[in-house]
Amino acid sequence: MTSLELVTLGGDGVEVEILPAVGARLHRLRVGEYDLLRTPPDLGRHVDDPYFWGSYPMAPWCNRIAAGRTADVAGRMLDLPPSFPDGTAIHGQVSRVPWEQVDDRSFRIRAGGDGWPWRYEVVQRFEPAANRLRLTLALTNVDDGPMPAGIGIHPWWRRPVRVAIDAATAYPSNLSTAAEPSPVTGDLDRRRIAEMPDGLDATWTDVGSPPVTLEWPAAGIRATLTTEPAVDHIVAASPGDIDAVAIEPQTHAPDAVRRLLNGERGGLGLLAPGETMRLAIRLAFESLET
After folding, report:
1. Beta partners for 237?
2. 269 pairs with which residues across the strands?
3. C-beta atoms surrounding 290 within 10 Å
4. I need a labelling partner for 245 at 20 to 30 A (CA). Which of 29, 38, 127, 144 fits?
5. Domain segments of the chain: what residues?
6. Prior bond to 210 cis, omega within 30?
């Protein structure tokens, strides 16, 4: 097994621990003395159970797309193995494999040219500072034809946590999504900050600003999440058997290959050869008393 060594970065009360060997993922995000992410006691859990710990990058797609062969996607054939028990290909190709460190804050991976027939590069940069964290993803098409593309991050935020998602519509289920979202009602209306009920796994869109606010009352911490450019898709999942909730800014909606092929809203983007898709996620932390 590749050595599971951590890279620690910190600045004025915000500290992160990065695991280059497993997706250059965040093993830990600590604000003051409080861990905000679901952090395993053993680094090996990121290998054994890679989808449910810390925070990891998603590229060149997010969420679920169909496994198997899909013809004529930007002129090529997809042939992706299932990577989740429901039989889908989930969360891209880069979250479980080794990345290389390119400087004290940046990590890189080159992948593709397989069941995902385009070659690409992803660079991820972490910049913790006083009361904030900036995480930047850059996906570059290094192939000779246009490549479908999507990026995002998948953090598991420790419970108890209160969440607000400023969004007017949602796709109620990430397992099977309609072409168009529906107005939020009932449990899907998350515009007022509160603990999330168990059992949600949906995508919110028509997103306002800031798109997400999180609060940890026990630690007295509030986090405001913003992105540049502004994303219009926030995925959230609150499984009842996990002591965390996932709140994931993404550049597209679920089943995004189907959406691209059908001309539906929220499909994967298309990158020309040499073109780069960038997403910066900024977390600003403050005291709940502020």
Report:
1. 201, 246
2. 149
3. 6
4. 127
5. 7-287
6. yes
Is the per-residue pLDDT at 2 higher than 80?
Answer: no
pLDDT of residue 290: 58
User: Residue 48 in 3-state DSSP?
Assistant: helix
pTM for the predicted model, two decimal places: 0.96
Class of 7-287 in CATH: mainly beta
Going by the DSSP 8-state scheme, the letter that residue 196 receives in this structure is P
- pLDDT at res. 38: 98
The CA-based dihedral angle spanning residues 13, 134, 137, 261, taken in that order and rounded to the nearest 10 degrees: 120
Of 165, 139, 142, 157, the residue nearest 59 (C-alpha): 139
For the chain, percent of residues with pLDDT exceeding 90: 93
Q: Rounded CA gap, 216 and 288, in Å?
A: 8
Interval 192-230: pLDDT, tens: 999 999 999 999 999 999 999 999 999 999 999 999 999
**Strand partners of residue 287:** 221
Partners of 66 in beta bridges: 88
Contacts of 85 (CB under 8 A, 6+ apart): none
pLDDT tens track for 6-39: 999 997 799 999 999 999 999 999 999 999 999 9
How large is the C-alpha radius of gyration of the chain?
18
Side chain identity at residue 126, one-letter code: F
Closest CA to 288 of 110, 161, 114: 161
Pairing type for strands 233-237 and 201-216 reads: antiparallel
Cα dihedral 52→58→61→66 (10° resolution)? -20
Per-residue DSSP letter, 169: E
Question: Is the peptide bond between 40 and the residue preceding it cis, with omega within 30 degrees of 0?
Answer: no
